[in-house]
Amino acid sequence: MRTSPAAPAHALPPYLFGLGSWFVALGIGMVMVQWIVAEMLHQPVARMGVVQMCAMGPSILFMLWGGTVADHCDTRRQLLICHGLAALPSFGLAVLAAAGELHFGAMIVYALASGTISAFAIPARDGLLPRVTSLSLPKAVAMATGAQYLCQLIGIALATTADTIGAVPLLATQAAVMLAGGIAVWRLAPQPPVPRADDAPKGWAALWDGVRVARSSPQIWPVLALLFSVGLFFGATFVVVIPIAVRDVYGGGSVRLALVNFVFWTGIIASSFALMRLGTTVARRGRAIIMALSWGVLVLLTISLLPPFPVLLLLVFCWGAGAGVTMTQGRTIVQVATPASHRSRLLALFQLGFMGGTPIGAPIIGWIAYGWSLTGAIWLACGGAVVTLALIVTVSRIWRQELRSAPA
Question: How many angstroms from the chain centroid is the CA of residue 200?
Fold first, then answer.
């Protein structure tokens, strides 16, 4: 099992603080976008899907580009720029809300801007992890995954106060937290790119070289395909159907909406920290992903019955626990199986799988939920997930292969 190279002892805390601040702000934003669109602006389910598509759509266009830039520049500088820019959309919404001018078009602009900035921040941060810790990569990935979702939970918990204090203080807090994370990233040492051969691909060729490496790896491409299906079917259901079900079936309100998000991310955190303790003892990580996604289908089918709200919360926690296994084990496979020279690009593809699938699925799931029913939309998502799982298991070796070391 490959371990991370030696790193300064003081490098990990500011890295984690920067990561944590980003996801505290993200947690606030997740609930606030849903709450503003559904509760303040009273938009229908189809428009909720449009906003979520705009939030995640830029990943399709820019995530791999962001990873390519990160592989060829100082990732610390890239993260600093992203933290500064990411505070602006939240601040802009706060100004509009304070003036009483908040409208649906502003939410579209906010979603597009935030999604574009994230496309450059995520691969830079993920690629930086092995350079700031001396832990084994499986433990480092599980620790970072658990920390990011724990901080996301903090942001979600803060957002539960939206009904009481309104949008302006929360949006201003979101911007301030993002700037604080930039200060933490500034404390890191410069992180220049890994040296590469003089004839290494550059520009667009470097971008497609990352795709080539992913496509040629029997360990990586099945993970990327599965993550795309997760976004297409599960992610779209979570960001579109669940918020509308909370509003129309369970009484609505920011508290109930935040509770659903809270228990989901709690499930992810619980499974991530459990896997951190297991560390390198999990050999067939691909099999763990298949089993976790199959579990997710069963849980989602039960949710389609629209059970009482306490039961819904329990089911969403179970769904999150399975998602934690999928995200942690998938990211570990990509981290370990990827050469250091291509790491940010491959991790960008990993994020692109999930974040690229969700904006495609979100409007489709939204339109089906609007034209048919919430239950019918969930059934369709589960059917698509089952077909994809069966196909990937049939045409790849993900069920039986063990994790191998990657070249340094």
Answer: 30
Whether the Cβ atoms of residue 370 and residue 44 lie closer than 8 Å to each other: yes
**pLDDT the model gives residue 225:** 87
Strand partners, 136: 3
Q: pLDDT tens digit string along 173-217?
A: 999 999 999 999 999 888 887 665 444 555 556 666 767 776 777
State how far the Cα of 9 lies from the Cα of 7, in Å rounded to an integer: 6
Q: Say how far apart CA 21 and CA 83 lie, in whole Å.
A: 9
Asked if residue 191 belongs to a domain, the reply is no
Contact 406, 3 (CB under 8 A): no
Instruction: State which H helix or E strand residue 111 sits in.
Output: helix 104-128
* Bridge partners, residue 3, by sequence: 136
Within a domain: 97: yes
- The answer on pLDDT for 2 being more than 60 is no
Instruction: State which amino acid sits at residue 399.
Output: W
Domain assignment of residue 16, yes or no:
yes
For 169, other C-beta atoms within 10 Å of its C-beta total 16
Identify the residue whose tokens are 């509003």. Answer: 247
Asked if pLDDT for residue 53 goes beyond 90, the answer is no
Q: What share of the chain is helix, strand, coil (3-state, %, to 5)?
A: 80, 0, 20
C-alpha span between 296 and 280 (Å, rounded): 24
CATH of the domain at 359: 1.20.1250.20
In which domain, by residue range, is 75 found? 12-185+205-395
What's the full length of the chain, in residues?
Answer: 408
pLDDT, averaged across the chain? 83
Total domains present in the chain: 1
Mean pLDDT of the 303-310 span: 92
Task: Identify the DSSP state of 160.
Answer: T
* Residue listed under structure tokens 């984690």: 16
* This prediction's pTM: 0.71
Instruction: Indicate the SS3 state at residue 3.
Output: strand
Q: Is 194 within a domain?
A: no
Higher local confidence (pLDDT), 304 or 149: 304
Mean predicted confidence (pLDDT) in 72-79: 88
